[in-house]
């Protein structure tokens, strides 16, 4: 029976604004891929990311371009060769996983060996701002056990101090989004170590991070923009201590599983992260993150409203998805 694909753009308002070193946004723009086969339906959500040259129209077109091949029965393995890593492939891949689960009655969690499922503790992200504003954000969320703090500017030592003083009981991840330089990274790392920071994400621009091989890592350093797929990892040995796996970067759960497994083989720590999207985008990542060292799947917590039904969050704890949502 032929499969039928549909593609839809949706927008969800963010609670306030979400700010990183590259800019701010007030809504999450997502694309939903739906694949139907007979009475069964599978869905996948992706978030186009400008940093990688993606936009809503381009991702929509890339999914539409796969219409005939999806109708013809292309599988997830074939999809890896047919499309590059990125948001479009992620939406299709996750829709295929969901569809397969609905047809066979086998949950995705069981298919990937992620059972028994457990509730996860996710980081909660604080937007970049002036030190006083970031301290206020940290103070308001000081009850959360893990905070992810967006930094990436000339005043980062003051920002780090402000946040750690405002939330002294929280473990903290710093995410510089490629915003540090060769001139300030050693000083920033040393201060982060003094403040007992747990992890630092992508301090330097991808492709200009060679200095990481030659300086001390008093705090573990995690690759984000520098790593997309498993094939990227060999060149990261000696530069980074961990990798942040995002489905939109890897191009779906299939590729993300391969990336996670290869990362473990090479001795990297694993973070499973996300773009700002809804529970539909987080659901497959929750399954991927069952054995992760760090979990950053707070996208729905940053929205003014999530889709219904969504994931269940209790504080910083996120429960596995109900099959009605995905998988």
From TrEMBL:
Mg(2+) binds at residues 175, 201, 224. Its cofactor is Mg(2+). It comes from the Bacteria. Its EC number is 5.1.1.-. Residues 131-222 form the Mandelate racemase/muconate lactonizing enzyme C-terminal domain. The keyword Hydrolase does not apply. One of its GO terms (molecular function) is racemase and epimerase activity, acting on amino acids and derivatives. The keyword Nuclease does not apply. Belongs to the mandelate racemase/muconate lactonizing enzyme family. This is Dipeptide epimerase. It comes from Mesorhizobium helmanticense.
């Amino acid at each position: 029976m032929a499969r039928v694909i549909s593609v839809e753009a949706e927008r969800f308002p963010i609670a306030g604004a979400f700010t990183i070193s590259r800019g701010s946004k007030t809504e999450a723009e997502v694309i939903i891929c739906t694949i139907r086969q007979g009475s069964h339906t599978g869905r996948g959500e992706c978030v186009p990311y400008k940093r990688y040259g993606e936009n809503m129209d381009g991702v929509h077109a890339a999914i539409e371009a796969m219409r005939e091949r999806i109708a013809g029965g292309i599988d997830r393995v074939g999809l890896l060769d047919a499309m590059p890593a990125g948001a479009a492939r992620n939406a299709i891949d996750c829709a295929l996983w969901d569809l397969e689960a609905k047809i066979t009655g086998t949950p995705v969690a069981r298919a990937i060996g992620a059972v028994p499922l457990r509730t996860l503790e996710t980081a909660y992200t604080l937007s970049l701002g002036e030190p006083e504003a970031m301290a206020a954000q940290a103070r308001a969320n000081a009850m959360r056990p893990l905070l992810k703090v967006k930094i990436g500017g000339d005043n980062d030592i003051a920002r780090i101090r402000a946040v750690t003083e405002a939330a002294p009981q929280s473990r903290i991840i710093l995410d510089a989004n490629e915003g540090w330089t060769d001139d300030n990274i050693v000083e920033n790392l040393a201060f982060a170590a003094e403040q007992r920071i747990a992890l630092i994400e992508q301090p330097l621009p991808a492709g200009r991070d060679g200095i990481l091989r030659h300086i001390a890592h008093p705090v573990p350093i995690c690759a984000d923009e520098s790593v997309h797929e498993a094939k990227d990892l060999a060149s990261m040995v000696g530069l980074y201590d961990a990798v942040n796996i995002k489905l939109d970067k890897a191009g779906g759960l299939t590729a993300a599983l391969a990336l996670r497994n290869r990362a473990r083989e090479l001795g990297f720590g694993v973070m499973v992260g996300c773009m700002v999207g809804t529970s539909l985008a987080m659901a497959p990542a929750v399954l991927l993150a069952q054995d992760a060292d760090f979990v950053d799947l707070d996208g729905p917590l940053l929205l003014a409203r999530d889709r219904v039904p969504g994931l269940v969050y209790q504080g910083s704890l996120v429960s596995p998805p109900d099959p009605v949502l995905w998988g």
